[in-house]
Structure formats: C-alpha cells, structure tokens
Amino acid sequence: MLENRFQWRNRELREHTSVIDGKVSPTIVLKNGTYLNTYTKQWQKTNIWIMRDRIVYVGDELPEQCAYAEVVDCDGKYLVPGYIEPHAHPFQLYNPEAFAMHGASYGTTAYINDNLIWNFLLNKKKAFSLLGALERLPVSMYWWARFDSQTALKDEEELFSTDNVLSWLEQPSVIQGGELTSWPSLLDGDDRLLYWIQEAKRLGMPVEGHLPGASEHTLTKMKLLGVSADHEAITGQEVMQRLQLGYQVGLRYSSIRPDLPVLIEELLAEGLQSFDHLMMTTDGSTPGFYENGIMNVCVEIAIEKGIPLADAYRMASHNAANYYGLIEELGCIAPGRLANINILQHKADPHPISVLSKGKWIGKSDAEKQPSQKVDWASHDIRPIAFTWDLTMEDMQFSVPLGLYLKNDVIIKAYAINTDVTVDIIPSNTDDAFLMLMDRNGQWRVNTAIKGFTNRLGALVSSYSTTGDIVFIGKSKQDMLLAWKRMKELGGGIVIAHDGEILFELPLTLSGSMFAGSITDLMEKEKDLKQLLKDFGYPFRDPIYTILFLSSTHLPYIRVTQQGIIDVKKREVLFPAIMR
Fold it and tell me: Where does the Adenine deaminase C-terminal domain start and stop, copy by copy (predicted)?
C-alpha cells in the first residue's frame, strides 16, 4: 500500500476483489457481530472480512476461502467505526506517537493534527520525512497546515512564507488549512493570508477557524472568506448560530474548556434534531485528562446527555471523516475503508473491549499489548537540546515597569509593577515573581514580572513553551540559575528549584518540548508537578497551559513573545526584547 492517502496499488486492489471471489483468504473475519451502519444509522447483524488493513466485505456471507484468516466470533458484541479526534495538538508534553497509541488502545484510531511545533523545530524536508514515519504507525495520522504562529516571532515572514505554507498544503497527509488564529488580520485586509486560504480550498481542503466570541457579522464574513469550521463556541446558542451559517462545529471537551456536557444540554433544549455537522474534540488537553481515553469519553458524555445513540457514534467518526473528505477511507464500517473498528461489550458502552486499527489489534482484551515505539526520533533531528550558551546573573536584570497579571489559567492582563524587582529575591508577602523569556539559542531575552503564578516558589524553568524558547518564573535568581543548570543537563524539560534544592524535574528530551516515555509515566509526572505548584501558591487548574500560552497572541490581553511584551488588542510591542 502506498503512503499517499491510502491509495492501494492495482495488484492489491485485484487481490481484494479476489477475496470476494473466494480465490484468496482474508486475514481477519469478524463474524456474527452487530455493527452500526453510519449511513443508515441502523444496527445490523453482519460478518466483516478484512484483508490486511482494508475492509473488503460487510454482509451476511462468510468467505469461501478462510485458510489464512483469523476468525473472531463477535456474537453478542457491537461494532462501531474507530473514533476520530478531529482537532489534536499532539505535543502537550507528550509526543504524537505516544499520544496516538495511547488513544488507540481506547478506540481513537485516527487523528487530525496541528503541525505548529514542526514549524519551530524542523525544516521542511525533515518535517515531511517525520510525517512519513508517523504515517507508518498502526493508526491514521493526518495534519493541518498552519497559516500563522499564534505568537509574535522575530522571523515570522520566514517561517510562514508563501513557499512554506504551500509546501505544507501539498503534502499528502495534510488535509486542512488552519487553525486560523490570525483571523483579525484577515479581516483587516491581509491578502497573503486570503491567498493561502484560497489555495487550500482549491486543493479541496476545508479551513478551520478560531473564532471565540465572534459576532454574526464576523462569522458571516469569515464564511465568505473561506472558513469552513470552528470549535470555539462555548454556549449552545453559539453552536446553533454557527450551524445556521453553514459551519461544521467541533464541540469541545478539554482540560481547559470541558464544555461538552453543557453544550449538548443547551443544544437539545434548543430543539436541535440534526447532528450531522457536529464533531467532538479534546483540543490538545494536558496528559492527565486522557487517563481514561480520548474520544470514547466524549461519546460516553454524548450518550449520557441524550444524543441519539447512532448520532453519538457518528459525531466521533462518520461526521469528521465526511467533513475532511476521508469518508472513502475511514469513519464508517463499509467495503473499501481502512479496518479501524471498535468492538464493544454493550451498544451504549463506547469503551471498546478490542480495537482494530489498520487491520491490526491494538490493546486486544486477551492478547497483544500496544506496539513498542516505532519512530526513531533522533533520525529526524528530534533529540535533546545541546545548549551552547549559559545563563548569568547579568541576564537577570529586571527594570521594566509593566508585568503580566494572571487572571486565570490563560487570560493575562497588564499591571504596573510596584514590587521591587531589582532585588535577588522577591519577598513571599507578594504574589509577584520574576518572569523571563530567553531565546533557546541564547541570543535575546525579555525580562519582566508575573503576578498570580506563585507567592513563594524559588524557580521554575521550562523549555516547553509556545515556540520552544525558555521560560523562567520564580522568586529567587539563584534558584533560577540552579533550575536552568539542571534543565540544561537534561537537554530540555521542566525543572523546579527552591531554597537551593531541585524539587522536581520532567525531562523533555524530544527537542525540549516532548516526553520520550509512556503516557502513563507522564501522567504521574504531571500530577506531581501540578500538586507542587499548587503547594507553592498556583491558584488555577492548569499550569501547563499557563506556561504554554504565555506567548500566545490569540488570547487576551498581553503576552511575552520573541519580539517583546505585546499588547494583543493593539498589536503593539510595549517593551522590545533585548539582544544579549
């Protein structure tokens, strides 16, 4: 089979039809099961024949030739399509392989992934090679092509040039433009951005928006300019408005916005009867949120809240596949599709007891374990950071009068710094702390203060950030130096120091952004990190997102970026970055 969007070779296609003729044995037969036909929304008794990674028959018959087939009796079991996560950010401390394989064991066998991190970490050639390696996993991996960085870069025009954006759009595994966090620029007349959208549409791709709080006029204008979908609705009324304007809508259930239960309640109260243009997404949640799986959890919520059973499963499979133009490949159980199938104990229990993905068993209840790691990250230039520079006390000179005030996990306002930040240690009677963003190559820095993150922590240093630059937060400059030295030794990660002692470390040896171990181990590490920060005065739910979004200019009101401290609404640099 070719890696080009699952186009099988002529020889393979002939072999598939020979199975129907009884000349060739299938590789797996699922007999006597009851499956959900997502086209008719009916449950039907059936036998399913699979040839390697493809479903070749669904119907009443059993194959004449079964000599080489694994025959599985599914009597009393229910079969639904493998679930699809339609809006994944597969690098929230975890890496795409570990995330996808963890999700697959719970029935999520296909992912539409953000490509943002590869723009920062790899050149095009290496990034596209890595996509090829990820395609060879026993899960279905697809990608977006980002049109903007969602921050303020020093080299934005170079990273997000027309040549780079169009090269991404032309990749076989790229099936979407967006998500479009720079939509205000589009409305302000950015014709280069409009050209990229038009190119995506010309290639048959949808374009996803990022439109929190958008008015009817804004939603209408964005539809006219080519935006196809949005996942930012936070009320049932906002979902209805988007549906009425012809949007595909993702209902979000994430660690930072667990809106799905209330959205469904409000949609049903509004009298919504058609669910064909709804999907569900976990929108790049932090690791612990995935303890019980990914889309299986969303389907469970949909069923519990009263979505008709067939529609609940379609919202996690057929609807997404149809929207992305993948319905001939996945999203349903039908001839010609990839063999992504979840076997359920009960019709209304979306947590599979066995999972097939690309015709391979993933987490089968009585047999195989998850496949071992297959991606050789180092061969794709994803390895520990080799820092060639060092931090000094001279770098930690703080004199900017304006700081960042955390209002919640991700909303940040400006504040006038009244605390003395020229000292080596900020007293614990205030919740001000030093904040520094340092170029990962040591060429520039931004020094300010942050209020509301901690009232006594010595230091947190993190190479995990929006752009892969280094975040320093803390009360003590000496602890910041100590945490930096340990993070440097690790080759990237998150390190916490206090009173001259290292209290916590999370190695992120995949380019300083991603954990190389199992999701289970990472969940334990994240739990320890959250508890430790809570003990040191962090008042909100998700410090991982706080760190990640310090530089994210798609959120209000002020951010610290490569260019300096930015007023997001005015798009002005208030205090520029300092060259070292």
Answer: 428-571
Tokens (6 digits) for 507: 């190695």
Which of 580, 80, 576, 98 lies closest to 310 in space, CA to CA? 80
Phi, psi dihedrals of residue 490, rounded to the nearest 5°: -70, -20
Q: Between the CA of residue 98 and those of 85, 371, 375, 522, 538, what are the distances in Å?
A: 15, 10, 10, 10, 28
Helices H, strands E: what count in the chain? Answer: 17, 28
Taking the whole predicted model, whether its pTM rises above 0.90 is answered as: yes
Contact in structure between 186 and 155 (CB atoms under 8 Å) = no
The 3-state DSSP class for residue 521 equals helix
Q: 297 in helix, strand or coil?
A: helix
What does the pLDDT read at residue 270?
A: 96
Return the residue matching tokens 């991700």.
410
Say if residue 179 is preceded by a cis peptide, omega within 30 of 0: yes
C-alpha distances (whole Å) from 378 to each of 4, 90, 381 are: 24, 18, 5
CA distance 453 to 534: 9
Rg over CA atoms, the chain: 25
The pLDDT tens digits of the residues spanning 118-160 come to 999 999 999 999 999 999 999 999 999 999 999 999 999 999 9
Q: CB count, 10 Å around CB of 189?
A: 8
Q: Summarize pLDDT for 398-426 with one digit per residue, the tens.
A: 999 999 999 999 999 999 999 999 999 99
Give φ, ψ of 435 to 5 degrees: -135, 125
502 — phi, psi (to 5°)? -80, 120
CA separation, residue 221 to residues 131, 190, 205, 214, 570 (Å):
34, 14, 19, 10, 21
Neighbouring residues of 519: CB distance < 8 A, sequence distance ≥ 6: 94, 98, 99, 102, 287, 290
Q: At what angle do helices 124-135 and 162-169 cross, to 10 degrees?
A: 20
Give residue 541's pLDDT band: very low, low, confident or very high (50, 70, 90): very high
Answer for the pair 56, 335: CB distance below 8 angstroms, yes or no.
Answer: yes
pLDDT at 348 over 50: yes
Banded model confidence at residue 339, pLDDT cuts 50, 70, 90 = very high
Q: Is the pLDDT of residue 229 over 50?
A: yes
3-state secondary structure 19-85: HHCCCCCCCEEEEEEEEEECCCCEEEEEEEEEECCEEEEEECCCCCCCCCCEEEECCCCEEEECEEE
Nearest to 207 by CA among 291, 118, 269, 145: 145
* DSSP per-residue codes, 558-574: EEEETTEEEETTTTEEE
Q: What domains lie within the chain, and their CATH numbers?
A: 80-328 (3.20.20.140), 393-579 (no CATH)
Biggest CA–CA distance in the chain, Å, is 83
Q: Decide if 112 contacts 176 (C-beta within 8 A).
A: yes
| pLDDT over 70 at 365, yes or no | no
Specify which residues 63 forms β-bridges with.
none
Q: Write down the pLDDT at residue 366.
A: 34
With tokens 């998150």, the residue in question is: 494
What's residue 374's pLDDT?
Answer: 86
